[in-house]
Amino acid sequence: MSEILKENGIQVKITEAMKAWREDAGSLREKNRAVLTGVSPAGVIRAVPIMLNDFTPEEVMGFYKAYIDIFLESLPVEKRSAEQLQPGHPLKTLWDENREILRDAGELAIRGCLFSRERAEKLRPVAAKLRSMGFTHYDREEMVLFPYLEKKGVSALITSLWRSHDRIRERFREMNRALGGAPEKEKIREMSLKISEETADTAIRETDLLYPTAYILLSPGEWAAIKEQEGRIGYYGKPPEDRWKTDAEPVQAYEADPHITDEQMAALPASVRSVLGGMQLVGDYYEFKRGGDIELNSGYLLPEEIDALINHLPLDVTFIDSDDRVRFFSENARSFVRTPSVLGRLVWFCHPPKSVSTVEKIIEAFRNGEKDEAEFWITINGRLMHIRYFAVRDRWGDYIGTLETVQDITDLKRIEGERRLLDWED
Amino acid sequence: MSEILKENGIQVKITEAMKAWREDAGSLREKNRAVLTGVSPAGVIRAVPIMLNDFTPEEVMGFYKAYIDIFLESLPVEKRSAEQLQPGHPLKTLWDENREILRDAGELAIRGCLFSRERAEKLRPVAAKLRSMGFTHYDREEMVLFPYLEKKGVSALITSLWRSHDRIRERFREMNRALGGAPEKEKIREMSLKISEETADTAIRETDLLYPTAYILLSPGEWAAIKEQEGRIGYYGKPPEDRWKTDAEPVQAYEADPHITDEQMAALPASVRSVLGGMQLVGDYYEFKRGGDIELNSGYLLPEEIDALINHLPLDVTFIDSDDRVRFFSENARSFVRTPSVLGRLVWFCHPPKSVSTVEKIIEAFRNGEKDEAEFWITINGRLMHIRYFAVRDRWGDYIGTLETVQDITDLKRIEGERRLLDWED
Q1: CA distances from A97 to A79, A147, A206, B423 (A)
Q2: Which of A105, A395, A399, B305 has the fewest CB atoms within 10 Å, i.e. is most exposed?
Q3: pLDDT at residue A412 above 60?
Q4: Residue A260 contacts residue A284 (beta carbons within 8 Å)
């Protein structure tokens, strides 16, 4: 009850502020700042249906955008450190995306309230854009930023944010399904408001907690490594300008310093500290690189791990090097027997004489760059075997060998539908 | 014409020898040795239809077996060196199998000539056994013995034998297809005789040329390595007794000495030498092991080859080590984005919080040995993605990690029938 009264109070205040804004847009900042900064973006979004009773959608959108600007610029300085960074700094990019996400959340709420089957096309692009934050903005945080914070012992915050991200992703899936059918107006309106609110709420938690924490804990080298990687995932909206530069050597998450100084600790947002109840953050001091590790492009493995990894693949592998010699084969449950005697053998000698011309043709086309792949399939003892040849090239595109894979695809062909849950019985 | 007269002459001689053998089996060796050793096994097989006119099948079989023994024991000593080796020596095993193959070829000819639809069951087991030489006796030669001979420059002989093996394999496939339908008596009779003749002819070329050549050229260490490998492929009939022992260190084909001494050269079978026309055999001096190679269980790869090989697989790979850390991921056209920041990350942190309990359950069951595999499939953007987890164990069965593979199986599901030929247009 008191919650409803409070909500009603907020709505009255918002409506008043909006009337003033309609009279004189410039006056909003001076006269209503206190009112506006006392209401969260999620609170304003909840008021959208009421606002639409008295104002045009354009007015609501205009007011909402002005409100977001005022809300963000009124945040205390320690929450706005990310905003002050050079464009292109990964944290500045997250901050700027978050502002755009907050705006787009408002637009989704408005479009959702105005939804009808005839006007579905007005909602779709807004929903699609906002949904894309799940595999850009959120993915960058979860996949690239979070590992550094884990290393430094920050875990409760990121777990709770990740849960929110996932709930929002799930809500978007539900709305997509609803929009795919013959959706009821009321249902879409509810869904849009709910998604918008949760999105805005999550964005504010990131602004309040995640970004200040990352700002305080991460070093320039750590940001440099994040910068190298974030482009692989992609951005929400336009990619950032590239003005931020650093001379620092990139530091990967597994090399990051887990130690947190007392100064850093003291500077963390109060609620991050309060979760710890006076305890220190416990960093992750695991030594990732081991003696004997082979440094690979994207990982460190012992030779025995390389063997075991390849030998547990659900396909057989043979590698022929650029001298046309068999250089490696896997020892899975093989479809075609291989023994060490094949190592060093010229590939022409590993096939029945009548197939040699086909092998020659494939490898020649791989070597001179005309082709990248060849495939065959045959039935052996009732099993369908898929045999593939791939041209293997180094990062400069030069031919370094041919990979043969043989896979029993009999059972794969029977897979239907989806299996999202573990089917073990116990 | 002269060929037919000669054949007729042989048949008359065989018939006479057989009559004498029926009178007095023991006398065959003394009285008819000269006649018998002048006729090849293939020649005797060609005479089987005539023999069956005058003698019972049991008599023909008994005579044929006696003939094979006499034929083999009459070979010059340099062609019988393989026979003198200890049981278990790989070359002795080949020799003994060859004797059995020669006998079984005779039986196939006899059963084939007596074939009728009612008596198909008499032919099938003989044909099935003889056919198995294609993936035991022949495979061992092609896969394990031939690489050593290639290394030493012997290539014409092995190519021509391999062609014969393949022709015989193909004839067996044809006969199998014929037997699967409603075969004509005459056709099966012809096929059986043809296969038997070619099998016997190939066996004799092996006895005459391949085994003496291998006997002269291969070292004890080379035979030791062959011995280690041959069991993976398997034997024709019963596995050999294991009386042969050697102290020599196994020498893999890629380490084998390509040099042939003058004495070895002089001792080679005349027809092997005559192919060379006085030239030396040109051995294969390729250095298989390179600086920087990582020694794997079944091959030698440079780190950049390991990277390239894994990254060209038709599936995505992630490896979690026994400390539950992400230790490696492949960089194929990935279905799920991975960046270096994931390296060293605890696997629990790489998944949305709500999936963590599933990941925990899988890894726990892998670690304690209860399970070896888990699979899921989901549709993403219209593509069916097959996600599998494999317990990775070392050779002692101890858990060393978990392998995740993600494969787009959308196109694999559409594969039908067979594609045995390259489909490139040009």
Answers
A1: 16, 20, 11, 49
A2: A395
A3: yes
A4: no
